[in-house]
Amino acid sequence: MKKMFLAAILLTSLIQIATAEQVRCKALVLYDSWVQHDGINNYKDSRRWEKFRSALKERCSVEFTKHVNLSMLKNYDVLFILTPDEDIPDDEVNAIINWVKSGGCLVITQDGNHKFANEISEKFGIKFRGRARMEVRNFVDHPITRGLGSIVGATGSSKIIVFGNSKVLGLDSVGHCFIAVNESAGCGKIIAIGDELLWMNSRIEHWNNAKLLDNIVQYCCCCKKCSIPEISPFGLMVSIGILLATFIRKF
Fold it and tell me: How high is the pLDDT of residue 199?
């Protein structure tokens, strides 16, 4: 009787752990500082970015900030830097780079007018250079590109050059890269896209622009390189059964 009582307590505890609600993935979006801050592209408040905010909130927990440091970044899984338009403070560059290397997932864009994103991205083998209209229809098979048919941005999008461990993910018809990834950034990852305007209200629901955002969030939140491997529900129940049987035999 004692065995059954103790076994019931153990089983109840394990099931509670197994079925506990998982903490939602946490994303942080920079706005109104050294990223676009002309009012139109205020990612936190502008009406032109309502659909982007809504799409993110459906997929993860989202917060906005004007500046970052390493202590702050450690609380988030994904950081969105949508087109810097001035020099990035050195302390923030270093904080972001160190956060990525320790396991963070950075999503960074740059249009063709500026190259400030390179202050961060070049550390990971990604460089924004040159302008062209972003019409991507050729994709390398990858979780980020799964199910995509076409991605279209603005006329002044930025082409991407990859080197080192970075990989091309999306090309236009003449071979210009507009989507790239580095999965060897320490324990983290960096995803680069040659335009942020593909996610504003007038574009996000066209082509597969929203699908790309969905894929990115799932990839960043579910594929952590240096985290403890996830156990499937079936595998977890088998483990519980083995542990329970061992417990009963001992008592």
Answer: 97
